[in-house]
Write a structure and sequence with these properties.
By secondary structure, this protein is of the alpha+beta class. It has one domain: Gcn5-related N-acetyltransferase (GNAT) (Aminopeptidase, 3-Layer(aba) Sandwich). Helices cover 29% and strands 29% of the residues. It has six helices and six strands. GO terms for molecular function: L-glutamate N-acetyltransferase activity. This is Pks. Keywords: Acyltransferase, Transferase.
Amino acid sequence: MEDYVKQGNLVLRSESEINDRINDYYIYEVDRAIYGCGALYPQDNNQGEIGAIAVNPSYKCKGVGKKIMRYLIGLGQKRGMNRLFLLTTQTSDWFYGFGFYPGTPSSLPPGRKVRYNNERNSRVLLLDLVSRSQDTTPG
């Protein structure tokens, strides 16, 4: 994730911050080599925040990021979350392909809204899971 932090795509998190929420992180691993990661952080109002999406540069465009996103969305559904959201400064269009749509900082749950960093100017993207669970369209 370090390269993504240096590029400004991910927020720097301390080792203790990651350790405190280690159960929210998921990795994509093949033969004990890590090729990608992502996180699903439970939030207020039965919502979840997707974050820390990172893929090894040599595995970009090989579907690793898509697999991580699909897994996290499915996990949110399995946990009965009503909505997922994420903050991004770079790749909004990529997330639209998963059904995310634009929101605003005021769309965030209360506990996350107070921690929104205006200086970073992240776009807020939302994904309603309630309507997705009723959607029977093949994936």
